[in-house]
Design brief:
Blueprint (H helix, E strand, L loop, with lengths): L4 E3 L5 H9 L4 E3 L12 E6 L15 E7 L4 E6 L4 E5 L5 E6 L8 E8 L4 E7 L8 E7 L5 E6 L4 H4 L8 E6 L5 E5 L4 E5 L5 E5 L20 E7 L3 E6 L5 E5 L5 E3 L11 E4 L5 E4 L4 E6 L8 E7 L6 E7 L5 E6 L2 H5 L10 E6 L1
Parallel strand pairs: 1-2
Antiparallel strand pairs: 2-3, 3-26, 4-5, 5-6, 6-7, 8-9, 9-10, 10-11, 12-13, 13-14, 14-15, 16-17, 17-18, 18-19, 20-21, 21-22, 22-23, 24-25, 25-26
């Protein structure tokens, strides 16, 4: 297999074309003068056009992924099967959890590792026309047995038919084992404590204060990716406005993070050990951001063009050599539209620092 390195062109297009022409490449990203001194190499794809990217049991439409630092592997949630697969960074896959007690055809849309309690937290959602179902499942990482299944309560407006049916989407976990789940349709955040007790935690009017282009693709999708910061707050990105919110993890109060540009189509968010925040969009690109004041303000200092046809929806930081970043291409829209046609191939691509 040929390896080579190319300098990233100004618009990134040439590098993207070379990537699809090769099995692997390293693309060095140069930063503008005065930007944060971090350089990433975009490379190594797991499972691109090979059996290495097959999920067991035909569950290859992937809705979410996370890195398990103890077991040293990725965990991926299927969008069209009730399975969570384990994938090593050598691209060896196995079924990690098969939970047939869940309703048929539900999707795993968000995953998080609760390191304190050695649990995997998984957001479960049923897309229409299936009956509504939104829950958080907790699984023991050692026994792989389910510990609890918490049904996420609907807001009064949801029950009265005053808003769209909820879409439980992403999840983050704090240092006490509390989980926070975004509702992309209702624009609020649930909290599930370490005992599995669920409640609506944050429903700030700021989440619906910004204009939405209803003619834009997926304009129904609001609050989306969420990440917990050890200083006691959450960062949440909003798909249809491009806004980022800083949410107090104690009382749920929210404020808008002032950015130098909106992150339109923002889907997932991840923190690096060096304070860099990565935000991925399936309809836009991957952004790298920094803040000097704990996310009262922040700024995009670099961008990476992605292959939007494969619908990149996830980004995590981890790997055996800590602080590596990975992007997930899971062909999510095929699953949502019912066009999976036996799709089994996904890919994970690495950003090397």
């Amino acid at each position: 297999m040929r390896d080579f390195t190319v300098e990233r062109p100004q618009n990134g297009v040439e590098g993207v074309e070379q990537f699809w022409a090769q099995s692997r490449f390293d693309l060095r990203l140069g930063l503008e003068q005065g930007a944060v001194g971090v350089v990433f190499n975009f490379g190594h794809s797991l499972g691109l056009n090979s059996d290495a990217g097959l999920l067991p049991s035909g569950g290859g439409i992937v809705g979410a992924f996370v890195w398990d630092p103890l077991a040293q592997h990725f965990l991926l949630g299927s969008l069209n099967q009730r399975i969570i697969a384990a994938v090593t960074d050598a691209a060896v896959t196995e079924t990690f959890i098969s939970d047939t007690s869940l309703p048929e055809n539900v999707s795993f849309l968000g995953l998080a590792i609760d390191s304190l309690n050695q649990r995997l937290l998984a957001v479960v959602h049923a897309f229409a026309p299936l009956p509504p179902f939104d829950a958080l499942a907790a699984y023991d990482l050692r026994s792989r047995q389910r510990l609890f299944l918490s049904i996420l309560p609907a807001a009064a407006a949801d029950d009265d038919g005053g808003s769209d049916r909820p879409i439980a989407n992403d999840v983050a976990v704090d240092h006490k084992g509390n989980a926070y789940v975004t509702n992309s349709a209702g624009n609020y955040i649930w909290k599930v404590n370490d005992k599995g007790e669920a409640s609506i935690f944050s429903a700030s009017p700021l989440y619906t204060a910004y204009p939405v282009d209803r003619d834009a693709p997926y304009s129904f999708c609001g609050l989306n990716g969420i990440a917990y910061v050890s200083k006691g707050y959450l960062l949440v990105v909003q798909f249809n406005t491009g806004k980022m919110f800083k949410v107090d993890a104690n009382d749920g109060t929210a404020r808008v993070v002032v950015l130098n540009e909106d992150l339109m189509g923002a889907d997932d968010i991840a923190f690096g050990d060096d304070g860099v925040v990565l935000v991925v969009s399936p309809v836009n690109k991957l952004w790298l951001l920094k803040s000097e004041d704990s996310w009262g303000q922040g700024g995009v200092y670099d961008e990476i063009d992605l292959d939007l046809e494969r619908f990149p929806t996830g980004v995590v930081v981890g790997g055996r050599k800590r602080n590596r970043a990975y992007v997930l291409y899971g062909h999510v829209m095929e699953g949502m539209m019912g066009n999976s046609s036996g799709r089994e191939v996904f890919s994970i691509e690495e950003l090397r620092k």
